[in-house]
Design a protein that fits this description.
By secondary structure, the chain is mainly β. It has no helices and nine strands. A hairpin with a 2-residue loop joins strand 7 (76-86) and strand 8. The N and C termini lie far apart (29 Å).
């Protein structure tokens, strides 16, 4: 996954993410009956600074990450991952970076 860059103070829209089953991007991960949450953290992965439940389009298998005012309140580089849960399973994506960049309010 690439880095996601979001201007500080932006909110009210969604970033789209597609998860693939392997590094060749040959097959999109099936998300039926799955709950997906975004977790962001700084230096300590045991203490998320932001967590948000995502919206899933099961037809396109696309994950929509809501961009909120709370998410973009602080400028910085954050580690992030998507946590997928469903009955009897919990799995995390490969960590990626979300950059909240300085912007006029």
């Amino acid at each position: 996954m690439n880095r996601i860059v979001i201007p500080q103070y932006d909110y009210g829209y969604q970033e789209q993410i597609t998860l693939f089953t392997d590094s060749t991007h040959a097959e999109i991960k099936d998300l039926e009956d799955t709950t997906v949450s975004l977790k962001m953290w700084g230096d300590d992965p045991t203490t998320p600074v932001f967590t948000e439940t995502c919206v899933i389009d099961n037809v396109s298998k696309t994950i929509f990450v809501p961009v909120t005012a709370e998410m973009t309140a602080k400028v910085g580089f954050f580690n992030a991952e998507l946590e997928l849960t469903k009955s009897g399973m919990k799995m995390s994506s490969v960590p990626f970076e979300i950059s909240i960049v300085e912007s006029a309010q």
